[in-house]
Request: fold
Amino acid sequence: MAININILTLFPEMFEIFNHSIIGRAKNKGIINITTFNIRDFTDDKHKKVDDYPYGGGAGMVMKAQP
Reply:
């Protein structure tokens, strides 16, 4: 039975590094399965925007919660 790892990210190409080294060998042997999901694929916004400003202002960004 393989271990399944799901990664939600804005940058799925960054995790292609897992195709190499020890983790890459484990993937090839079927020991682990790593799946990446681009969060932008699930937004209803026509610009694929997924971040928003914090309620009440202040520094930083938060993930937009769509209705």
Remarks:
- The chain has a mean pLDDT of 90.
